[in-house]
Amino acid sequence: MPDVVADGLRVLFCGINPGLTTAATGHHFARPGNRFWPVLHLSGFTPRLLEPAEQDQLPALGLGITNVVARATARADELTAEEYREGGRLLTAKVERLRPRWLAVVGITAYRTAFGERAAAVGPQDRRIGGTRIWVLPNPSGLNAHWTVRTMADAYAELRLAAEESGGAERRR
Fold this sequence. Notes:
Helix content: 25-40%
Order of helices and strands: EHHEHEHEEH
Shape: globular
Number of strands: 5
Strand content: 15-25%
Distance between the termini: 37 Å
Radius of gyration: 15 Å
Low-confidence stretches: 169-173
């Protein structure tokens, strides 16, 4: 599954791994019922609701998408801890190369396992990768039912505001 990336993004969103629908279509978060695209819009990251097939418009908005693990599965629980850890190593190298302002990992369990941060919670993290700050967001999968579209959009909007504030500070330097 190809990444949607560019150098120096405001936010690089990082999914857990491609689902089967994503792998089949070549579009991130493509499974019907996945709430990523509506949440991205409701949180103010995009000016309108984008379809998965419009993912290539994200870099122009300072946004990108990658995954912790490249292997497509029906469910994330099919991944091994070693796949997550190796994915964390590869993701670190990718972030060091691309230098986004923020890495947003969508899934607390994926972040905890990939980076060995057992006590991590949703929100900003102390860990950095070079100059890139890290924020953990709720996973937008329909299987993550205890987060509603509205509560997820609120959590994503907190990151958007932080990314806007950090961008302003960098421009003033």
